[in-house]
Design a protein that fits this description.
- It is built from 14 helices and eight strands.
- The chain has about 290 residues and is an alpha/beta fold.
- The protein has an eight-stranded mixed sheet, sandwiched between helices.
- The longest helix is centred in the first third of the chain and has 15 residues.
- The radius of gyration is 21 Å and the shape is globular.
- The N and C termini lie far apart (about 60 Å).
- Bound molecules: thiamine diphosphate.
- Thiamine diphosphate (TPP) binds next to helix 5.
Amino acid sequence: MERSNRQIIQRYLRHNKKFPHIWCPGCGNGVVLGCLLRAIDRIGWIKDDVVLVSGIGCSSRAPVYVDFNTLHTVHGRALAFATGVKLARPHLHVVTLMGDGDSVGIGGNHFVHACRRNIDMTAVIINNQIYGMTGGQVSPATPQGALSTTTVYGNLDQPFDISRLAEAAGATFVARSTTYHVKELEKVLGQAFRHVGFSVVEVVAGCPTTYGRRNKLGGPVEMMRWQKEKAVSVKKAREMAPEELAGRIVTGVLVDRDAPEYTREYEKIREAARAAQPEPTVEEDKVDRTGAEP
Ligand SMILES: Cc1ncc(C[n+]2csc(CCOP(=O)(O)OP(=O)(O)O)c2C)c(N)n1
């Protein structure tokens, strides 16, 4: 049964406790949260089996608003917490939601190592190209030449291509979409959630308040129009020359491959270790393990 947006809101948000939300008018974060909830609803995950983990940032506030098991952790450390949860409770569906600064700035090291580990969880990265929550400092995803509070004469650094970084580090599923392409976003999120292994979904999103305004990109509508005009599907991109692709946003599923999944491999090692243990002697078996004083 497909639920209406109203039913999704009723079912998944902590409406009595956690509102109003902190996001600015025109922010892309609400769009991503809506797509994420619809994707989860569509694939039929039970709410109590879902764990939504975030670091700190505007987008990282999302877990505060939803009625899953949620962890609002430390800036840059969402994936480390999420890995712990998944290893302790492999049957849970673990999703992390991070900003570009959170995931590939302060959390960059956790990110590349999570990609190579192939643990079965999904990292959703909302790439608004700036540190939104702290007022617009440069991030590793800020375009060259762009203005921020810490690059007032233009950013010198080359930005990371987050999806390609994920691919190079070994992620077994990588997709990119935008907050304009809601249907596609919802679809690729569903595919990522179903994928067995580490999946990454990069969402190009607008931050009109701290990025758009400073870089004179117009309001939320113009920023969405930019996403629409710059986007090119992965299928079409394969037929385009590198010069034509410069400055375009390639969307769709970029990587989808199988590899051994970490928690399953870990379980095999545990079993092998258990099998290698010598059987306890009768005397050892009698040892009082309750901790009570003799
Ligand atoms: C260890 C640590 N360093 C710095 C901060 C300050 N801080 C909070 S949010 C943030 C940046 C958020 O940017 P991003 O991750 O891109 O997310 P957005 O707010 O744009 O969604 C920073 C630097 C912090 N909370 N903790």
